[in-house]
Amino acid sequence: VQLLESGGGLVQPGGSLRLSCAASGFTFSNSAMSWVRQAPGKGPDWVSGLKSDGGTYYADSVKGRFTMSRDNAKNILYLQMNSLKPEDTALYYCAREFWIADTKEYDYWGQGTQVTVSS
Question: Which of 52, 51, 35 is nearest to 92 (CA)?
Answer without folding.
Answer: 35
